[in-house]
Write a structure and sequence with these properties.
Layout lengths: L1 H13 L10 E2 L7 E2 L6 E5 L1 H7 L4 H5 L5 E6 L5 E6 L7 E5 L2 E2 L20 E8 L3 H4 L6 E7 L6 E10 L3 E12 L2 E15 L9 E15 L4 E15 L2 E3 L1 E3 L4 E17 L4 E17 L5 E19 L2 E17 L3 E5 L2 E10 L5 E12 L3 E12 L6 E12 L3 H5 L11 E14 L4 E13 L2 E4 L7 E4 L2 E13 L5 E14 L17 E10 L5 E9 L2 E2 L7 E2 L2 E11 L4 E8 L18 E9 L1
Parallel strand pairs: 6-9
Antiparallel strand pairs: 1-2, 3-8, 4-5, 6-7, 8-9, 10-11, 10-38, 11-12, 12-13, 13-14, 14-17, 15-16, 17-18, 18-19, 19-20, 20-21, 20-22, 22-23, 23-24, 24-25, 25-26, 26-27, 27-30, 28-29, 30-31, 31-32, 32-33, 33-36, 34-35, 36-37, 37-38
């Protein structure tokens, strides 16, 4: 297989090609802008055009059409939604929103709940797969999801849309942006409400959901070398749900979320631009309140971060990235007793990017985190990207180490916490290639990966009286990812993604040794096609197929695989006005991503979009 792989890479490198997407800029791999052919890790980009064309409401529904991603949603729209990358825990996905780490310090395992993150005014998503703690510190064991709102338009511009459909669902959004003199910025607001369906399978009571999200950006460029960045994001969400005791049961339970995200940063360039620096303060606050017939309770998580990052590039062939971070997560709980905890994390890191000769880019780095509860942890990472033909073929390889401290909830919760928990640690390897042919009209990407994790955290419900978090000895995930983009003619675009993930519990002597980790289907494939007719009508469809999985660590509750087909269309009336519509789950498939929870059947929506 190794010889065959080398031969295939050599053949692809020699295949004629006119151009690829070589000048695309990636920011997630190192936290700074990089050309794609300098990045040795697997990164997928969902751009603004794709977000608009697909008409998806939830960011999670876009993510599952990319390689290596699995998701589970406990409830209907707005319910707790976790994203797993390459078979990692959903708590091992680090999430950035406009440059701010938004993982919830009060959540189980610092989980970021994608249920309340709707597409709204989001304009770009980058998904980096593989452990990358050198750049991002604790959490980035499975990978990183970097979510960005739109950049201000030149001059002045804006857009607005509204659509309506199944279950009395209303979805509206608007944004404006512009620039004048030294200032550029934008604001946006999005509103979503639905009567919903019953969260519990077989239930009849509808569980509604409402979400309001706003964002704002302001940049002041005082000189060519000095600028100030201010960013803010806010989400308010109200969810009706059903209580969970073994399996969901209909109830009058509800929850409320208020999420605040803030960023203030100064950018300074010195020595004719050879040294660029960024100093920033970021702030996250997550307030989650739950209302139940058994009593009200809630969690509040706050994270204040101070960041400094410098990039020194004395010559074109070499650059050094270095930085310091201080992080103060804070967790509070009320109801059924009360409690809370705080921690301090200080981190330093350095990475070097070297291009020893044309076509080869090498990256290596080291990070040290000092955690107030666990002491020091050092992580290493390295990757390489080689293109023998000016970017038409990119051969990639990477090694990354991951480190994740137990969350404050897992350590100190009065019911399930365990102060004796150890940090999770991982080692991740992958090798792959990207290749474009026929002037970029066909592009293929294939990556093989493996990740070994020690001391992975696990909730053991058999520990009396309420269950407790413990460390598993070992887990392993390995597999293959593939993606294809075809554009045989200008009017037709076809994309496809496939991933095989084998994620197992390797705890020697454990009761679940050799079992599949929960809610990680081995096989998943997604195919999308969109065609634009000469008179402007656009028609498209997405088919997503996910294999069987298990809901529990013991592999006793099976979750059947499913296939979802969605179709969509849009038609521009003129350059400023467009009508659009879609049908989700066209075949009315019955399925579940979390045992006992309901999902939408066939549902139709239509709307109008305005640009100016």
């Amino acid at each position: 297989m190794f010889k065959t792989g080398i031969s295939l890479l050599a053949l692809l490198a020699a295949t004629p090609a006119l151009a690829g997407d070589n000048d695309e800029i990636i920011v997630t791999a190192l936290g700074i802008e990089q050309p794609r052919d300098e990045v040795g890790q697997a990164v997928t980009v969902i751009d603004a055009q794709t977000i608009e064309t697909r008409q998806s409401v939830s960011i999670a529904d876009l993510l599952i059409t990319t390689p290596g991603v699995r998701f589970n949603r406990a409830d209907v729209v707005g319910g707790v939604t976790g994203i797993s990358i390459r078979g990692a825990e959903t708590t091992q996905t680090l999430v950035l929103l406009d440059g701010v780490k938004v993982n919830d310090p009060s959540g189980i395992g610092d989980l970021y709940d994608f249920g309340n993150l709707l597409t709204g005014n989001i304009r770009r998503v980058e998904i980096l797969r593989g452990s990358n703690s050198v750049v991002y510190g604790s959490q980035a064991i499975g990978g990183v999801v970097n979510i960005m709102t739109g950049e201000p338009a030149e001059g002045f511009g804006g857009s607005a849309s509204i659509d309506y459909g199944y279950a009395d669902t209303l979805n509206a959004k608007a944004d404006v942006s512009g620039s004048s003199g030294i200032a550029s910025g934008g604001v946006g607001v999005a509103y979503f409400r639905t009567d919903g369906i019953s969260a519990a399978q077989g239930g009849t009571e509808k569980d509604g959901y409402e979400n309001i999200a706003t964002h704002a950006k302001l940049k002041l460029a005082f000189t060519n070398n000095l600028s100030l960045d201010l960013r803010g994001y806010y989400i308010h969400a109200d969810l009706d749900t059903d209580i969970f005791f073994g399996a969901p049961m209909e109830s009058t339970d509800s929850s409320k979320l208020n999420q605040y995200v803030g960023y203030a940063g100064i950018n300074l360039a010195l020595f004719d631009g050879k040294l660029t620096q960024r100093g920033a303060v970021t702030w996250l606050r997550n307030d989650r309140d739950y209302f139940s017939p058994f009593g009200d309770y809630g969690y509040s998580g706050t994270n204040l971060r101070f960041e400094y990052e410098g990039v020194y590039q004395p010559i074109d062939q070499a650059k050094l990235v270095f930085g310091y971070e201080h992080e103060r997560p804070d967790y509070d709980f009320y109801g059924f007793g009360s409690g809370g905890a705080k921690a301090n994390i200080d981190s330093v890191y350095a990475l070097a990017v070297v291009k020893p000769f044309t076509g080869l880019s090498l990256t290596g780095g080291v990070r040290h985190d000092d955690h107030s509860q666990f002491g020091g942890a050092t992580t290493l990472g390295a990757n390489a990207n080689y293109t023998p033909n000016a970017g038409r073929t990119n051969i990639r390889a990477s090694y990354g180490e991951g480190f994740k401290a137990p969350s404050l909830y897992q350590l100190y919760d009065g019911f399930n916490g365990n102060p004796a928990l150890r940090p999770e640690k991982s080692k991740s390897y992958d090798i792959g290639f990207d290749h474009s042919v026929v002037g970029g009209r066909a592009m293929i990407s294939v990556t093989a990966f493996r990740r070994d994790t020690r001391d992975q955290l696990y909730f053991d419900g058999f520990i009396l009286p309420f269950g407790q978090y413990i460390n598993l000895t070992r887990t392993r995930a390995k597999g293959v990812e593939a993606a294809v983009t075809l554009k045989p003619v200008d009017a037709l675009t076809v994309t496809a993604a496939y991933s095989y993930i084998d994620a197992i519990d390797r705890s020697e002597g454990g009761i679940n040794e050799g079992k599949l980790l929960p809610r990680r289907a081995k096989n998943a494939v997604s195919v999308s096609a969109d065609y634009v007719w000469s008179f402007g009508l656009s028609m498209g469809a997405t088919l997503t197929m996910v294999g069987d999985s298990f809901n529990d660590a013991a592999n006793t509750q099976r979750l059947d695989g499913y296939a979802l087909l969605g179709v969509r269309t849009s038609f521009p009336i003129n350059e400023h006005l467009e009508i659009y519509g879609r049908i989700d789950n066209l075949a009315d498939e019955e399925y579940s991503t979390v045992y006992g929870y309901n999902t939408y059947g066939r549902s139709a929506f239509g709307g109008v979009r305005v640009r100016f």
